[in-house]
Amino acid sequence: EAPVEKHEYQAEVSRLMDLIVNSLYSNKEVFLRELISNASDALDKLRFLSVTEPHLMEGASELDIRIQIDQENGVITLTDSGIGMTHQELVDSLGTIAHSGTAKFLKALKDSKEAGSDSNLIGQFGVGFYSAFLVAEKVVVSTKSPKSDKQYVWEGEANSSSYIIREETDPEKFIPRGTSIKLHLKRDDKAFAHPERIERLVKNYSQFVSFPIYTWQEKGYTKEVEVDEDPAEAKKDGTDDNVEKKKKTKKIVEKYWDWELINETQPIWLRNPKEVTTEDYNEFYKKTFNEYLEPLASSHFTTEGEVEFRSILYVPGVSPMGKEDIVNPKTKNIRLYVKRVFISDDFDGELFPRYLSFVKGVVDSNDLPLNVSREILQESRIVRIMRKRLVRKAFDMILGISVSENRGDYETFWENFGKHLKLGCIEDRENHKRLAPLLRFFSSQSEEEMISLDEYVENMKPDQKDIYYIAADSVTSAKNTPFLERLYEKDLEVLFLVDPIDEVAVTNLKSYKEKNFVDISKEDLEIGEKNEEKEKEMKQEFGYICDWMKKRLGDKVASVQISNRLKTSPCVLVSGKFGWSANMERLMKAQTV
Ligand code: ADP
Ligand code: MG
């Protein structure tokens, strides 16, 4: 007998286990989803590593997940032929919080307690491996990593703060590679140990797993056998004098046990888009990215020709909880596959520019090598082409939201990702044409609802050449600025740039549909026709006041001038033609502090 080691759970795990066992009653069935997803991850890891280390596959070449159900004793055993765990990996993985989703769950649970709401969080987040204890009083994990020559057993119980690890010594329990998880169900949860129930859960929760999932099932087939005819029967048809015994065929059902495949393993992105419903796409999204909100939009496409790849992209729905860090996005939003082998979700930056880092999706390429690395991606011409196509598709998808009947969708989008697109105006000159129509601003004629540049242009006066804007820190301060007086009078619309990044974005764009963006706070703003006679008169009459003021103010101003831009205010401070606008100066100051 190998010695038994006792280990204590990390404090968070103990807390979580306590919660799982004592208070999370609803949605217990997610345990299966979590265990299957771990099995699928383990198979993915093995398949990926075996590309460069083929010997890892030795001993068991099938990559699959098998579920055995012992109805009588209420035991479910889930076995995968994946990467398994070494002794150290067991301790690291099944005694601490490894799962980012679990950490998210704990945080959300805390937030929801504070907010006093009682939402069904466990179904939304899942708690990874520990969700086994939603239904099991005892869990036994037996695992064999190809990196270790020993197989180890982990055992934990529902109401314990510790678990044990020992070496497997019973040859009957040896597996060539992978992990087998045995759940001894709680008395009230034994009903889960039913083949139909399990099959239903797999169909419900794990339909996007791309490895075969089998259950061990009793089956039957009917066969025909020849039997001697019953002598009583023979009598009835009045053939007693016939001594020959009659033969008769009879159908009987032969029972046997076998593995039954219960899932479809073709990845959703390989299916024909015509046969995939919006619900399928949304489900896939939620399961793949651990999201509980529906996406705002999705796009499924194949590109052929020079570079071949398939992809499904999503614009996430947005939770009030998590706005992303726009400058340093830590995303894992793009899952890269090569010929259906999952490679990594760490290459977002290589496949999308930073400002589109909020886009989620899967990309499956046939042209990249399986052992692709970041260095290869960065050098690759293929990736450059893919990136271009992906960006274009992402824009199409966003444009789709912007023209949807439901204006609210784009408002939600804009509120959450508008900043990203403005950052795009600064960082991605090449896509200005795609970015500009997606921008939204308040204006002097639309203070409540944001408008697009197209709407602005449509509303331009026949002789208006430029797009006017004023940058300020709020709509209220924008509309009270004296610069607006003449434009109001002439009924000219002015965009209110109230987000600090707005002005930088617009100055980067320079123009839209050949109309320049013009800052109405800059000197020598010209609106409409000039009246030279009048100007001359004014200069004669007020010139000396200007000189006097300039003398008094000295270096504080560059110059004092007569202007026709005001209506009721006596004077206004403007920026020089080539200088920073007042708003930019504010920004610069804010940055140097
Ligand atoms: P996550 O899957 O998000 O990492 P889990 O709590 O579900 O978190 O699992 C914790 C860790 O346990 C996994 O990251 C993995 O290292 C390990 N693990 C769980 N199940 C298996 C398995 N079937 N085969 C190999 N490793 C596993
Ligand atoms: Mg997991």
UniProtKB/TrEMBL annotation:
Residues of the full protein shown: 129 to 721 of 843
Highest rank taxon of the organism: Eukaryota
Binding site for ATP: 34, 38, 80, 85, 100-101, 124-129, 179, 374
One GO location term (cellular component): cytoplasm
Keywords of this entry: ATP-binding, Chaperone, Nucleotide-binding, Stress response, Transit peptide
Record-given protein name: Heat shock protein 90
Keyword Mitochondrion appears in the UniProt entry: no
Sequence similarity: Belongs to the heat shock protein 90 family.
One Gene Ontology molecular-function label: ATP-dependent protein folding chaperone
